[in-house]
């Protein structure tokens, strides 16, 4: 088994590395990796419904879709991620959440932390979640990965994923908002996330007789970057992959209440309407119609609406206020 610690903290690269070792290598792998501030969205989720757009934009948080299903998660450098990639038999034989989380529980028990498997795919301490897990099968190979909240900034986690639950109506999988905890809060002795990483890697090496340390080669990095460019860097994957959804939001601006109603498909605005108790000089539906065919993306919508004097359509309302209604 190849044992790899990915030193980059760019989520696009790390997720591309998982795909590379899953689809283009034959060896079994175990990887540990961290991301800078980012939201990692499940394969079947509506990205816009999972994120606090303004907070994400203001704090330069990466938003990237992964190959596996499940809910959206917030990553920062206090969160450690682990990945198993193994070759096996048929689909039903490959899926095994308990098997791949057992080594993590073993390490925590050595640290006198009473952690256990809970529900469908979570690890908890005293009823509080510190790890969510997901799996993806490619041919006869399984990718299992999970988060390990060690010393994450909980305020950032909460703010980045905070969104009005009534804002979207769709068939996408909704992230379950659970009570969470950091592993570091339960340690009897101080330890940082990198020391914790070393403990886990040492345990894996002890578990698997064929375990061997592996560093990415120049060829590996080149091929990973190709996958990154083709998938994880693209708006079409991270946002456009979202299922069809309807957004309807009412918000108060300086000019009065404004309501936007939009139908979005494959990340593209197909239909939009604007309502409210505001005053206007020109027909505000002109603004809504201008958005048809545009990506439901903050910068794209901002650029389109920048061509208009918003005050002519929604009196005493700025472009920024209108964008807050749309997002």
Descriptive report:
- The protein has 327 residues and is an alpha+beta fold.
- The protein has 13 helices and 15 strands.
- The strands form 3 sheets. It has an 8-stranded mixed sheet, with helices on both faces. Strands 11-13-14-15 form a 4-stranded antiparallel sheet.
- β9 and β10 form a beta hairpin.
- α1 (11-23) packs across α8 (218-232).
- It is elongated, with a radius of gyration of 22 Å.
- The N and C termini lie far apart (45 Å).
- The mean pLDDT is 91.
Keywords:
eight-stranded mixed sheet, 15 strands, 28% strand, elongated
Largest sheet: 8 strands, mixed
Q: What integer value in Å does the Rg equal?
A: 22 Å
Strand count? 15
Task: Report the average pLDDT across residues.
Answer: 91
For the termini, the CA-CA separation is 45 Å
Helical residues, percent? 25-40%
Structure class: alpha+beta
Name the beta content range: 25-35%
Supply the number of helical segments.
Answer: 13
Low-confidence stretches: none
The shape is elongated
Strand order, biggest sheet?
A: 7-8-9-10-6-2-1-12
How do the helices and strands follow one another from N- to C-terminus? Answer: EHEEHHEEEHHEEEEHEHEHHEEEHHHH
């Amino acid at each position: 088994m190849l044992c790899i610690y990915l030193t980059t903290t760019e989520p696009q690269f790390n997720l591309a590395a998982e795909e590379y070792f899953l689809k283009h290598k034959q060896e079994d792998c175990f990887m540990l990796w961290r991301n800078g501030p980012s939201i990692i969205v499940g394969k079947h989720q509506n990205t816009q419904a999972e994120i606090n757009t303004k907070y994400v934009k203001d704090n330069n948080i990466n938003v990237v879709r992964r190959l596996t299903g499940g809910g959206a998660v917030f990553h920062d450098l206090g969160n450690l991620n682990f990945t198993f990639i193994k070759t096996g038999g048929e689909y039903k034989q490959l899926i095994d959440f308990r098997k791949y989380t057992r080594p993590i529980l073993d390490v925590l028990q050595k640290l006198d932390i009473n952690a256990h498997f809970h529900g469908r795919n979570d690890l908890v301490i005293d009823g509080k979640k510190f790890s969510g897990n997901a799996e993806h099968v490619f041919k006869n190979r399984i990718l299992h990965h999970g988060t390990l909240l060690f010393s994450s900034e909980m305020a950032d986690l909460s703010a980045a994923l905070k969104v009005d639950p009534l804002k979207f109506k769709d068939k996408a999988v909704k992230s379950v908002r659970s009570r969470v905890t950091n592993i570091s809060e339960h340690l009897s002795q101080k330890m940082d996330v990198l020391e914790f990483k070393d403990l886990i890697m040492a345990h894996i090496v002890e578990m698997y007789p064929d375990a061997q340390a592996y560093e990415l080669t120049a060829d590996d990095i080149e091929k990973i970057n190709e996958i990154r460019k083709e998938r994880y860097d693209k708006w079409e994957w991270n946002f456009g992959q979202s299922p069809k959804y309807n957004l309807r939001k009412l918000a108060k601006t300086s000019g009065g209440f404004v309501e936007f109603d939009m139908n979005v498909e494959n990340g593209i605005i197909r239909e939009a309407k604007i309502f409210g108790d505001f005053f206007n000089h020109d027909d505000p539906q002109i603004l809504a119609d201008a958005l048809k065919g545009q990506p439901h993306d903050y910068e794209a919508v901002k650029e389109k609406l920048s061509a208009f004097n918003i005050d002519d359509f929604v009196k005493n309302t700025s472009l920024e206020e209108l964008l807050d209604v749309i997002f």
